[in-house]
Amino acid sequence: MFSFLSGLYFRGKLTYARNFENPPPRKASGIHIITPTDGLCSPQLAVSLRDLERFATVPIEADESRYRLPLEADATKLAEKIGPNCEVVLLGSVATGKYVDVLEPIFGERLLFPREFVGHGDMARGGLMLQRAASGIELTYIPVSHPTRLGSRATKKARAELDARLAANP
């Protein structure tokens, strides 16, 4: 369902994640999807029309409690399951705080994203992930906290949000 609704971008993320997932043995599934209302879900989860309607009612914003609280709870459980040495790769947007502001306090420096995403939009990232999955060449990951995560074309708002986060957590 997610692949159908978001096309190339989500299909690229899911294909890439399936090709390169490497979860700790007997700890947790390696792929999780962030939902607007239900925290983290498996890509195999059957989604009903009622689920879609519920998802549509909640904005994916870090300050939206109906989104944030289930995601925080699931991410905290996942962090406990995988242990302190396992890295977590975020294939979603890192240009705003909608994912980063919720996940970075939980995973810290272990929360990574593909360096190759910097400066590219959803469609370009989706195509890149499909290409890399087909070639078997994994992307290069850097911490979400890395100062270059927004690239040189970041909006003033996104850059100001990152600067404020960096100033608050030196």
Shape: globular
Query: How many separate structural domains?
Result: 1
Mean pLDDT: 83
* Spatial separation of the terminal alpha carbons: 41 Å
What class, by secondary structure content?
A: mainly alpha
* Count of helix runs: 7
Instruction: Kindly provide the radius of gyration, computed on alpha-carbon positions and rounded to a whole number of angstroms.
Output: 16 Å
How many strand segments?
A: 5
Strand content: 5-15%
Q: Walk across the major sheet and give the strand order.
A: 3-4-5
Helix fraction by DSSP (H/I, runs of at least 4): 40-55%
Largest sheet: 3 strands, mixed
- Uncertain segments of ≥5 residues (pLDDT<50)? none
Order of helices and strands: HHEEHHEHEHEH
Task: Give a structural overview.
The structure is a single chain. 48% of the residues lie in helices and 8% in strands. The chain has 170 residues and is mostly helical. Strand 1 and strand 2 form a beta hairpin.
Short descriptors:
170 residues; mainly alpha; three-stranded mixed sheet; two-stranded antiparallel sheet; globular
Task: Give a quick summary of the entry.
With 170 residues, the chain is mainly α.
